[in-house]
Design brief:
The protein has one domain: Beta-Lactamase (2-Layer Sandwich). The protein is built from 6 helices and 6 strands. The protein has helices at 3-6, 12-29, 40-48, 70-76, 80-83, 97-110, and strands at residues 53-57, 65-68, 112-121, 127-139, 145-152, 154-158.
Length: 159
Protein backbone atom coordinates (compact mmCIF):
# COMPACT_ATOMS: atom_id res chain seq x y z
CA UNK A 1 0.00 0.00 0.00
CA UNK A 2 1.47 3.35 -0.97
CA UNK A 3 1.58 6.29 1.43
CA UNK A 4 -0.77 8.19 -0.88
CA UNK A 5 -3.43 5.53 -0.40
CA UNK A 6 -2.57 4.75 3.22
CA UNK A 7 -2.50 8.41 4.26
CA UNK A 8 -4.90 10.43 2.13
CA UNK A 9 -4.27 13.54 4.25
CA UNK A 10 -0.79 13.73 2.71
CA UNK A 11 -2.17 14.39 -0.79
CA UNK A 12 -2.03 18.03 -1.92
CA UNK A 13 -5.67 17.94 -3.06
CA UNK A 14 -6.81 16.64 0.35
CA UNK A 15 -4.67 19.17 2.22
CA UNK A 16 -6.34 21.94 0.17
CA UNK A 17 -9.78 20.38 0.64
CA UNK A 18 -9.23 20.12 4.40
CA UNK A 19 -8.63 23.87 4.47
CA UNK A 20 -11.83 24.41 2.48
CA UNK A 21 -13.81 22.28 4.93
CA UNK A 22 -12.47 24.17 7.95
CA UNK A 23 -12.81 27.62 6.39
CA UNK A 24 -16.31 26.95 5.02
CA UNK A 25 -17.53 25.65 8.38
CA UNK A 26 -16.27 28.85 10.06
CA UNK A 27 -17.77 30.99 7.27
CA UNK A 28 -21.28 29.56 7.69
CA UNK A 29 -21.44 28.82 11.41
CA UNK A 30 -19.01 31.28 12.96
CA UNK A 31 -17.46 28.36 14.85
CA UNK A 32 -14.26 26.37 14.52
CA UNK A 33 -14.55 22.82 13.28
CA UNK A 34 -11.21 22.00 14.83
CA UNK A 35 -9.06 23.80 17.36
CA UNK A 36 -5.66 23.31 15.78
CA UNK A 37 -2.80 25.42 14.50
CA UNK A 38 0.07 24.51 12.25
CA UNK A 39 0.94 24.07 8.63
CA UNK A 40 -1.83 22.86 6.32
CA UNK A 41 -0.51 19.26 6.17
CA UNK A 42 -0.53 18.99 9.97
CA UNK A 43 -4.07 20.39 10.07
CA UNK A 44 -5.18 17.91 7.38
CA UNK A 45 -3.67 15.09 9.44
CA UNK A 46 -5.45 16.15 12.65
CA UNK A 47 -8.75 16.55 10.76
CA UNK A 48 -8.40 13.08 9.27
CA UNK A 49 -7.74 11.57 12.71
CA UNK A 50 -10.38 13.65 14.54
CA UNK A 51 -12.72 11.91 17.00
CA UNK A 52 -15.80 12.98 15.01
CA UNK A 53 -17.18 12.00 11.61
CA UNK A 54 -16.53 14.38 8.71
CA UNK A 55 -17.62 13.70 5.14
CA UNK A 56 -18.07 15.77 2.02
CA UNK A 57 -19.23 15.39 -1.54
CA UNK A 58 -18.81 17.36 -4.74
CA UNK A 59 -21.32 19.12 -6.96
CA UNK A 60 -21.87 16.41 -9.55
CA UNK A 61 -25.49 15.74 -10.59
CA UNK A 62 -25.24 12.58 -8.46
CA UNK A 63 -22.69 13.82 -5.89
CA UNK A 64 -19.73 11.57 -5.12
CA UNK A 65 -18.01 11.59 -1.75
CA UNK A 66 -14.67 13.35 -2.02
CA UNK A 67 -13.67 13.19 1.65
CA UNK A 68 -14.21 10.99 4.66
CA UNK A 69 -12.01 11.09 7.72
CA UNK A 70 -10.91 7.93 9.52
CA UNK A 71 -14.04 7.81 11.73
CA UNK A 72 -16.23 8.04 8.63
CA UNK A 73 -14.32 5.27 6.86
CA UNK A 74 -14.65 3.05 9.95
CA UNK A 75 -18.35 3.80 10.37
CA UNK A 76 -19.20 3.11 6.72
CA UNK A 77 -16.75 0.17 6.67
CA UNK A 78 -14.97 1.33 3.54
CA UNK A 79 -11.43 2.03 2.42
CA UNK A 80 -10.52 5.54 1.30
CA UNK A 81 -10.62 4.43 -2.36
CA UNK A 82 -14.07 2.87 -1.97
CA UNK A 83 -15.46 5.85 -0.08
CA UNK A 84 -14.34 8.55 -2.52
CA UNK A 85 -15.92 6.72 -5.46
CA UNK A 86 -19.31 6.20 -3.79
CA UNK A 87 -22.30 8.42 -4.55
CA UNK A 88 -23.22 10.09 -1.27
CA UNK A 89 -26.86 9.04 -1.68
CA UNK A 90 -25.73 5.46 -1.04
CA UNK A 91 -24.90 6.38 2.55
CA UNK A 92 -28.62 6.45 3.32
CA UNK A 93 -31.36 3.90 2.81
CA UNK A 94 -33.67 4.45 -0.15
CA UNK A 95 -36.64 5.06 2.13
CA UNK A 96 -35.01 8.21 3.55
CA UNK A 97 -33.67 9.60 0.25
CA UNK A 98 -36.44 12.17 -0.10
CA UNK A 99 -35.73 13.60 3.37
CA UNK A 100 -31.98 13.57 2.67
CA UNK A 101 -32.51 15.41 -0.63
CA UNK A 102 -34.70 18.01 1.11
CA UNK A 103 -32.01 18.65 3.73
CA UNK A 104 -29.25 18.97 1.12
CA UNK A 105 -31.40 21.49 -0.74
CA UNK A 106 -32.15 23.43 2.44
CA UNK A 107 -28.44 23.58 3.29
CA UNK A 108 -27.64 24.68 -0.26
CA UNK A 109 -30.10 27.56 0.07
CA UNK A 110 -29.24 28.65 3.61
CA UNK A 111 -25.51 27.83 3.68
CA UNK A 112 -25.85 25.34 6.52
CA UNK A 113 -28.30 23.50 8.74
CA UNK A 114 -27.75 22.06 12.19
CA UNK A 115 -29.25 19.48 14.49
CA UNK A 116 -30.13 17.03 11.73
CA UNK A 117 -30.68 13.43 12.79
CA UNK A 118 -31.29 10.38 10.64
CA UNK A 119 -30.48 6.79 9.77
CA UNK A 120 -27.51 5.82 7.62
CA UNK A 121 -26.22 2.44 6.46
CA UNK A 122 -22.68 1.07 6.27
CA UNK A 123 -21.39 -0.77 3.22
CA UNK A 124 -22.06 -4.05 5.06
CA UNK A 125 -25.66 -3.16 5.86
CA UNK A 126 -25.17 -2.01 9.46
CA UNK A 127 -27.69 0.71 10.26
CA UNK A 128 -26.83 3.60 12.54
CA UNK A 129 -28.62 6.67 13.78
CA UNK A 130 -26.72 9.96 13.52
CA UNK A 131 -27.55 12.90 15.76
CA UNK A 132 -26.86 16.62 15.92
CA UNK A 133 -25.42 16.67 12.43
CA UNK A 134 -24.31 19.94 10.88
CA UNK A 135 -24.49 20.11 7.09
CA UNK A 136 -22.88 23.02 5.24
CA UNK A 137 -21.86 24.24 1.81
CA UNK A 138 -18.17 23.95 0.99
CA UNK A 139 -16.63 27.01 -0.64
CA UNK A 140 -13.41 27.12 -2.63
CA UNK A 141 -10.72 29.80 -2.39
CA UNK A 142 -12.84 32.17 -4.53
CA UNK A 143 -15.91 31.59 -2.32
CA UNK A 144 -17.54 29.51 -5.05
CA UNK A 145 -19.76 26.59 -4.02
CA UNK A 146 -17.84 23.34 -4.60
CA UNK A 147 -19.74 20.81 -2.49
CA UNK A 148 -21.35 20.04 0.83
CA UNK A 149 -19.98 18.58 4.04
CA UNK A 150 -21.43 16.99 7.16
CA UNK A 151 -20.09 16.70 10.69
CA UNK A 152 -21.41 14.63 13.57
CA UNK A 153 -19.94 13.17 16.72
CA UNK A 154 -22.87 11.13 17.97
CA UNK A 155 -24.21 7.91 16.47
CA UNK A 156 -25.83 4.70 17.68
CA UNK A 157 -26.00 1.37 15.91
CA UNK A 158 -29.51 0.06 15.34
CA UNK A 159 -30.20 -3.64 15.68
Amino acid sequence: MTSMIKFPWQQEAIIRHSQRLINSFRHWTGNSLLDVNGVPQEIAHVLFEAPFVLVSHGIESDPIFNYGNRKALELWELSWEEFITMPSRKSAEEVVQEERDRLLSEAANKGFISNYSGIRTSSNGKRFYIENTILWNVLDEENQHCGQAAFFSSWKFIT
